[in-house]
Design goal:
This protein is mainly alpha-helical. It contains 16 helices and 2 strands. It has a two-stranded antiparallel ribbon.
């Protein structure tokens, strides 16, 4: 990864370490700090800082906004883990497992409250525009999560358009908002902010497509997770949706199998009908869209070196 990106990452991590949440009762605040301490790539706060640096802004202006976005992301993780009955997050017990469900719910609630406190610490440009962007995004993330939960319960096939909109809301919009609010924290032309937003949206969609690809077709030793987890769960991914469209009867038959037999049979069938190539093409199309946005940003005179490096870092595992 680019050394300048690593330096930005470290600046955010220093800010995170220097600004723990405090208050009573201690278990509420300990659980809030715990979820933020579990590592991860910190892509979202990094995007805020990259947006700020792209517009030649002051890093100190962007740090509260970077933390606001990361705290919101972790609020959603705490509640998602409860909904998904997940025991582990990034190799460690989830908040509701380490404490209990009521504490985890309140921890998530308080993290959400703290995002507004962080916004109030921001003293730069476009204050209300940034708040509007954040609030719209927060609503969309919640809508996307509800759709994801609903899709797991419906008996009817989920359409491709429904799925793509769900992952856009659940995953991509927060990436877009992160880059956009970072850019808006500068003195640059605010009319350019939407192109920065779209670059991150397209990158996020490409990332999600490749995540679906790697879950079914990737090497478990390289991806760090067992191949076919989504297949075993029967999750409505893009691959499963397209499989139903192509041959609904065969797809239902294969998903009636159990365990490794299901995984092997489904992967074999999907390769037979060329879905492994089709999903890579979809990922490539989103990536091409993101590069078109980057070309426009470059034409406006912004340095896109770090944004290109971030995109390569996020998507490099697919090469």
């Amino acid at each position: 990864m680019n050394q300048d990106i690593i330096a930005l990452q470290k600046q955010y991590l220093t800010y995170l370490e220097q600004n723990p949440f405090t208050g009573n009762p201690p278990n509420l605040y300990d659980s809030m700090n715990y979820i933020l301490s579990l590592g991860g790539k910190k892509v979202r706060p990094l995007l805020v800082l990259l947006g700020n640096q792209s517009g030649k802004g002051k890093i100190d202006d962007a740090l509260p906004l970077a933390h606001m976005i990361e705290v919101f992301h972790n609020f959603s993780l705490v509640h998602d883990d409860i909904m998904d009955h997940a025991d582990v997050r990034r190799g460690q017990p989830t908040v509701h497992k380490k404490w209990d469900e009521p504490t985890a719910i309140l921890s998530g609630d308080n993290l959400l409250v703290k995002t507004i406190e962080l916004w109030r610490k921001y003293n730069g440009k476009n204050t209300l525009v940034i708040l509007d962007c954040y609030l719209k995004t927060a609503t969309e993330v919640c809508e996307g999560q509800q759709k994801d939960m609903d899709f797991a319960m419906v008996s009817r096939p989920v359409s491709e358009d429904e799925y793509l909109e769900m992952i856009r809301q659940k995953t991509a919009v927060l990436l877009g908002a992160a880059l956009k609010v970072g850019f808006l924290s500068t003195n640059s032309n605010p009319e350019h902010a939407d192109t920065f937003y779209d670059f991150a949206i397209q990158t996020g969609m490409s990332f999600q497509m490749m995540d679906d690809y790697l879950d079914s077709f990737g090497d478990g030793e390289q991806t760090g997770k067992k191949q076919g987890g989504d297949i075993l769960e029967g999750k409505n991914t893009w691959l499963k949706i397209k499989s139903h469209e192509i041959n609904d009867t065969k797809t239902r038959e294969l998903f009636s199998l159990q365990g490794q037999e299901r995984i092997d049979a489904v992967v074999s069938f999907w390769k037979e009908i060329n879905l492994d190539q089709q999903i890579r093409e979809r990922a490539q199309n989103y990536f091409n869209n993101s590069m078109a946005d980057l070309d426009q940003i470059r034409k406006w005179g912004y340095d896109t070196t770090l944004l290109a490096s971030l995109s390569e870092w996020l998507l490099g595992r697919t090469n």
